[in-house]
From TrEMBL:
An example molecular function term from Gene Ontology annotations: serine-type endopeptidase activity
InterPro entries: AB_hydrolase_fold, Peptidase_S9_cat
One protein family per Pfam: Peptidase_S9
UniProt keyword Hydrolase, yes or no: yes
Signal peptide start and end residues: 1-22
Species the sequence originates in: Caulobacter segnis
Coiled coil: none
Name recorded for this polypeptide: Peptidase S9
Domain Peptidase S9 prolyl oligopeptidase catalytic span(s) in chain numbering: 426-525, 604-695
Length: 699
């Protein structure tokens, strides 16, 4: 029998603020604040935990023993921490990001990633890739940690300037000796990803030509790099998905289909993995790097499959005590003997737990959110309905606690991507809206991932078309069942979901009473130009930074109105141009096995349609249809957004004001595309809730 020392509910009660009275709505800060525990990573031998906590805005790294007791820690501050990786037992690699032009270059703002090492014994944090000649101080890929002859070695992908062009270059850093070496053997223009084997040798490169849309896979055979495969990939690079089943072959997700995972060997042979090895996410052994299994999300449930029966049995034993909770694997020690789990209870919200497979004991580490428990979590159910053309659409419906599911006010909350998906489990945004008395519909419209290649392809060319009516078809079905009042429906969302909110006000009119767009693109022609002609960076000859003139624009990211500070962000010229670092989506993808992690947003164009449809993007661009808006619109946008620039919302606000339509624009100071900061995330939620309560009262 497992000995669960504390239930999730018991430990959560120790962390809660004073509970609200039964007839009061819980404070929005419970939902909008950053998670109390953002991340927990277990050390290789399972003896220590690296825990990232927040106080609502500031982040903290704490190193503690797995059984309890602090060892070291630092205040990370308000940095946007993106990943935490153990390198041996005494070093933790932190990757943070900042939206800027960078210290050694100038150009369009992007999300740049910085790596640092926290030495547990010295309790000191040091930057990595700093002060290297002709090399930017940023990283463009996740750190790869290897133990070589007892030393922790971290391989970092940096940007080294070769004749004025930034190349994705691999660096080798020994954390014991601090010896840093650039591995220039095999570096090529267009490299966008590396794999390093367990012995510390680079063995695979992914290359992509932005001009031709041609992808290549190179593998090292002896001392020579050989091209193993090539393919036309107009929507972006296929990248690398890790090592194969023997720890030496290389995996690549070819295209958008879930059945397109190929395993390549250095001799040029490859095979497509069988159906029972087709996963939404891959699991690799942290020591041997072998593919050991994966996980799937089917019909709202996540399942883990391990190739080895012993691992599969151990997993089933680990999750059994949590009964009806949705359990995901967060990190594992070597040998898979200690596991950190995220336990998403439908009644009490998410928490982190640790299980020891040797002692068959488990204990809860703490709740992910303060103030979230059985008194605040609203029930979520999986639903399905037919779109107008007969395609089955699935999604999730969150219902307000304590209210009969009849004639409820509704908020439609489409996901971003658009090739993302709504998932089961705790969602702070929908839970916040449900706490105010709204039903919340999160549809997985056509084009969403996780439902097969045909479902994704059904979205190609349907941006603003059937992808949009899939949302209102869901409203009509819920109204037919009597669950919602069709006269009390609003729409809100972020990124593509923000676009969908604007399209609900200008294209699919008559369904909604109000719309809230968070970081939504409004002018698709500008998006298309940005994708096809991304802005370049300007480098000094010595790579230290340069004063640039503003005589003439080159490849402007924004070709519409000027920026909020009055400058023309497109007006940039320099004596020496270089390519920009790779797309931040590679580092920020929720699932690192997602094939889009190494691409730009070129794949957006596939959803916008072929060249014929792309020639008429004005017809589905809300900024061009402002005079048709028939409902109040709230625009919320981070000023540091480098994916959908703030000017997209500014242009929409200007167009709506010119047309005499009701609109409000809320800038989020210092915020990015992902709502990474606690204060501005809560500001977004507070403004959005106040807006829908005004124009679509919940009672």
């Amino acid at each position: 029998m497992w000995k669960v020392l504390l239930t999730a509910g018991a430990i959560a009660s120790l962390w809660l603020a004073t509970p609200a009275a039964a007839d009061d709505k819980p404070d929005l800060a419970r939902f909008g604040a950053l998670p109390n525990i953002e991340d927990v990573q277990i050390s290789p031998d399972g003896s220590k935990l690296a825990v990232i906590t927040t106080d609502g805005e500031q982040r903290f790294l704490t190193i503690r023993k797995t059984e309890g007791g602090g060892l070291a820690g630092i205040a990370v501050g308000d940095k946007k921490l993106r990943s935490v990786t153990w390198a041996g037992e005494n070093n933790v690699i932190l990757v943070s990001s900042v939206a800027s032009e960078g210290a050694a270059f100038k150009g369009p703002a992007r999300e740049y990633f910085l790596a640092s090492n926290f030495d547990v014994r010295e309790n000191v944090q040091k930057p990595l890739l700093s002060g290297v000649k002709d090399t930017l101080n940023i990283v463009v890929g996740p750190p790869q940690v290897r133990m070589i002859k007892g030393d922790p070695i971290v391989f970092l992908e940096g940007v080294h300037m070769m004749r004025g062009v930034g190349t994705d270059t691999l660096f080798r850093l020994n954390l014991r000796t601090n010896a840093l070496k650039m591995l220039d053997n095999g570096v090529r223009y267009g490299t966008d990803g590396w794999l390093v084997d367990a012995a510390g040798e680079p063995v695979a490169q992914s290359m992509y030509d932005d001009q031709t849309g041609r992808w290549s896979l190179l593998m090292k055979v002896g001392s020579t790099w050989k091209t193993i495969d090539k393919a036309d990939a107009p929507m972006g690079s296929y990248g690398l998905a890790g090592f194969g089943r023997d720890g030496k072959s290389v995996l690549v997700r070819r295209g958008y289909g879930e059945d397109a995972l190929r395993e390549y060997r250095p001799d040029g042979q490859h095979e497509t993995l069988p159906d029972d090895m087709v996963f939404d996410g891959l699991l690799h052994d942290p020591q041997t790097l072998k593919l050991v299994g994966g996980y799937r999300l089917e019909r709202g449930e996540i399942t883990y499959d391990f190739f080895a029966p012993t691992l599969q049995s151990a997993w089933w034993s680990a999750v059994k005590p949590f009964r009806d909770a949705r359990v995901t694997l967060h990190s594992a020690s070597q040998g898979w003997r200690r596991l950190v789990l995220r336990v998403d209870s439908p009644a009490e919200g998410p928490s982190f737990a640790l299980v020891d497979l040797n002692t068959r004991r488990g204990w809860v580490l703490g709740p992910a959110y303060k103030g979230i428990d059985a008194t605040t979590v609203s029930p979520v159910q999986t639903i399905s309905y037919k779109a107008a053309d007969g395609l089955t659409i699935t999604g999730y419906l969150t219902l307000p606690r304590g209210r009969e599911a009849r004639n409820l006010p509704l908020i439609v909350l489409p996901h971003g991507g658009p090739e993302g998906r709504a998932t089961p489990g705790y969602d702070w945004w929908s839970q916040a809206l449900a706490s105010r008395g709204y039903a919340v519909l999160q549809p997985n419209f056509r084009g969403s991932q996780g439902f097969g290649e045909d479902f994704i392809k059904a979205g190609f060319g349907e941006w603003g078309r059937k992808m949009q009516t899939d949302l209102s078809d869901g409203v009509r079905e819920l109204a037919r069942q009597g669950i919602v009042d069709p006269k009390r429906v609003c729409i809100m969302g972020a990124s593509y979901g923000g676009y969908a909110a604007l399209a609900g006000a200008t294209l699919d009119r008559g369904t909604y009473r109000c719309a809230v767009s968070v970081a939504g693109p409004s002018d698709l022609n500008v998006v298309r130009r940005t994708v096809l002609r991304p802005g370049r960076i300007c480098m000094r000859g010595d790579g230290v930074g340069e004063q640039v003139s503003t005589a003439a624009p080159i490849d402007p990211v924004w070709e519409g109105p000027t920026a909020r500070d009055g400058s023309n962000r497109g007006a940039l010229q320099c004596a020496r141009e270089g390519t920009g670092p790779s797309n931040p989506g590679r580092m920020l993808a929720i699932d690192e096995n997602d094939p889009r992690r190494t691409t730009s947003m070129r794949y957006w164009l596939r959803f916008m349609g072929d060249e014929r449809k792309q020639a008429d993007l004005k017809a589905i661009s809300p900024v061009q249809l402002a005079d048709k808006a028939d409902i109040p619109i709230l625009l919320i946008h981070g000023e540091d957004d480098t994916i959908v620039p703030f000017e997209q919302s500014q242009a929409m606000a200007d167009a709506l004001k010119k047309a005499g339509k009701p609109v409000a624009l809320v800038p989020l100071k210092g915020e990015d595309h992902w709502l990474s900061r606690g204060t501005t995330r809560l500001q977004m939620l507070t403004e959005a809730v106040a807006f829908v309560e005004k124009y679509n009262p919940p009672s």
